[in-house]
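Students often ask why we bother encoding 3D structure as a string. The short answer is that it lets us treat folding as translation between two languages. Here is a chain of 109 residues written in the first language.
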Amino acid sequence: MQFVVSNSVVKDFDQLVIRLERNHKWVLRLARKLNSYKYEPRNYECFIRLRDLRSGLDELAQDQMVLFDEIQHRSLIFESAEKKIDTLLLRFHQLENDMASYILEAKNC
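And here it is in the second language, the structure alphabet:
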């Protein structure tokens, strides 16, 4: 018994994977940026925020790698992969906003 997959589903799936790859590159860039000496905390509150940001980015990168593995082994159906990717993108946007506010406030920390 063979499954027939339409070209539109394959294209949509490929587009989701491309979005995830692009997003993963941004996560790695943001993590590198946080390691810059320019954003080193000067007080305890900023240290805690920086630690939370770094751990959030690390967890997000790990979750993205797990999803890459699941996609590569074709153990996910399209709908479930789409939901997971959307969840990861929402987490990324939240972390990106948190990082932007930290960077703006880093001058005062």
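Translate back mentally: The chain is about 80% helix and 0% strand. Keep this in mind for the problem set.
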